[in-house]
Amino acid sequence: MKGFIEQICQAIPPSSLISRKVQLKQRGADEYLGLCPFHNENTPSFSVSDKKGFYHCFGCGAHGDIFGYLMKLEGYTFREALEELARQAGVRLPKYTPKQIEEEQKASVLYHIFEAATKYYQHKLQGFEGKSAMRYLKNRGLSEEIISQYRLGFAPTNDELAQFLLKHHDHSDIIASTVLMQGSNSLYNMFRGRIIFPIIDKRARVIAFGGRILTDGEPKYLNSPDNPIFKKGATLYGMHNGFESAYKLKEAIIVEGYMDVISLANQGITNVFAPLGTALRMEQIALLWAICPEPTICMDSDAAGRKSTEKTAIAALQNILPGKSLKFTMLHEAKDPDEMVTKFGVRAFRTALANAKPLVNMLFDIERLRKPLNTPEQRLDLKQRLQELCEHIKEEQMKKTYRQFFMGKFFELFSRKIDTQTANDNDLDQGAVVSSVMEREHPFEREILSIIIQFPHLLLEKDISLHLLNMEVSCKKLDIIRNKLLTIIDFGQLEVMNKGQEEKLRQEILTSLAPEIILDEVLGFREFLHLEDPKPHLERLFKLDELRCLQDQVVFVQESFCKQPSTELFEKLKHLKDTEEQLKLQLGIN
Fold first, then answer.
1. The pLDDT value given to residue 230
2. Helix extents (H) in 140-209
3. Which residue(s) pair with 327 in the sheet?
4. CB neighbours (10 Å) of residue 207?
5. Rounded Cα–Cα distance for residues 463 and 112 (Å)
6. How far apart are CA 286 and CA 284, in angstroms?
7. Residues 338/299, Cβ–Cβ less than 8 Å
8. Contact 538, 471 (CB under 8 A)
């Protein structure tokens, strides 16, 4: 194989291949300079050397030979680049095995059948039979250029295509291609009466069709079944036009349907792709990860689109890696990207893309909105679901990072942020009972935080972390400490902690808090070093703090009752007083 590669490299100087798409200026006997095709630049920094046989960009660092150039620019695999360059160089590649030769010959026949059918459909769209289809496309705002670029066509309701193909191809090959299907007596076209959307691979070869019905009926869209040259789950619509621009922009957009891809291309946005009537699969995402680190998923805003988005987000977890992830945007103003650009313009669509959510945020929001979160049990259920999501991640460092992020968002969601300006005097919820105590320090809060900093293994216990989460913290500085404690632990990794691990975690906590707060001034945490078993003391402090909050509520309700007596307030006050007495009894307080 090495000898064949050398032959190809000798036959095709890099400048002759690259100059087909990049304007190069000669700067020596065999040196050339131009604008880099792999990133946007105004001053040329892209150097091509025929003598050395490679290109190099001093701006973005892109470097490689003619094989690497095709793989980067066109998204080719090495084998595809090898075959294409061998064809251009007139070099015959090593012989295939008899089986490989047979498969290549069969594939070649299928490509020819699809190409013939595509030209037939294109011709019909431009003729009398395609008038209604052409009117539909024009009404959707598509230009002649886009219709031609995406090779759109129309399938009449007659048997003309079968008669045409049978003149040039064997019946068995036509069936194998799936261009036509075998009926009870003859070949029939599953796309009859539909607008045809050719599905084209990276090398501009038609490998399947999609068809849209013009009248009312179901299904609205049909796709070719898999065939020897087409695998639905490993192909994207728009590949032949989108790969180059996606690579240059380092941005790829995945939408739901053919018309979304074409409508956006009609507006000059060509780095757009669509799955083929199914949920996005990892094989399809992998195609885009080869050219773009974080493709943006932009599915329809209806129930089906939201379900597809959720399924994609969860499935992607198994394959994410550092630098390889997804983003998500939902178009709340329109049902799909086609409607978005038609009604609101390209700028509105680009704004939606700019505000896309990273995968980790999308997953958190999916779980957050899945069930109610009103009780401690429901909140713990959310925490468990988030931890279970992390178990799908194969890469260990990514798993740890996601776990920490989820727990940070979890505690942030339920951390009590009380605003004295908006508290409603008529609201009897516990969160509203704050009035004048917002910045008053409570010794129980200080002691609780001090003990946990000194003994961070306590946070591994669910009841302690939940108490800390639900504790009302009235002082802003103490609230900062509480929130940082809840986010710094790598929840789910450890069930027990030895002294070495605890000391390491303690130092991590102190380092994290030190830039914002002088701990000795705020907490004085060293005073609790003498405790051998801090948990009983901590649990008592939580109950004391609970009693303090309850007593604040009693005062609040009493004041409300004095202002405006009612049966509801009387019953509320009685319940609070009974609860207060029970807590005092548990604490041994008279």
1. 95
2. 144-149, 160-166, 171-177
3. 296, 358
4. 22
5. 68
6. 5
7. no
8. no
Burial 112-125 (b: 16+ CB within 10 A, else e): bbbebbbebbbebb
Report residue 83 CA to chain centroid gap: 34
Residue 64: strand pairing partners: 55
Q: Rg of the chain over CA atoms, in angstroms?
A: 33
Residue 525 has what pLDDT? 53
At residue 61, the pLDDT reads 73
Could you give the CA distance from residue 539 to residue 555 in angstroms, rounded to a whole number?
25
pLDDT of residue 361: 93
* Closest by Cα among 382, 438, 434 to 413: 382
Question: Which secondary structure element, helix H or strand E, spans residue 195, and what is its range?
Answer: strand 194-200
Distance set, CA 494 to CA 460, 464, 505 (Å)? 7, 15, 12
3-state secondary structure of 54: strand
Q: What element of type H or E holds 223?
A: strand 221-223
- Token pair recorded at residue 361: 């945020």
Which is it for the CA torsion 440, 445, 451, 452, positive or negative?
negative
d(CA 191, CA 198): 12
pLDDT of residue 435: 32
Helix (H), strand (E), coil (C) string for 321-374: ECCECCEECCCCCCCCHHHHHHHHCHHHHHHHHHCCEEHHHHHHHHHHHHCCCC
Alpha-carbon span 367 to 506, nearest angstrom: 31
Contacts of 215 (CB under 8 A, 6+ apart): 193
Q: How far apart are CA 249 and CA 37, in angstroms?
A: 10
Q: What's residue 247's pLDDT?
A: 83
Cα 25 to its chain centre, rounded Å, is 41
**pLDDT recorded at residue 494:** 47
pLDDT value of position 416: 44
Instruction: Express each pLDDT in 323-358 by its tens digit.
Output: 899 999 988 778 888 888 888 889 889 988 999 999
CA gap 193, 156 in Å, rounded:
5
Which ranges of the chain have pLDDT less than 50? 1, 416-439, 491-494
Q: For residues 49, 50, 54 and 58, what is the CA-based torsion angle, rounded to 10 degrees?
A: 10
Spatial distance between the Cα atoms of 168 and 286, rounded to a whole number of angstroms: 37
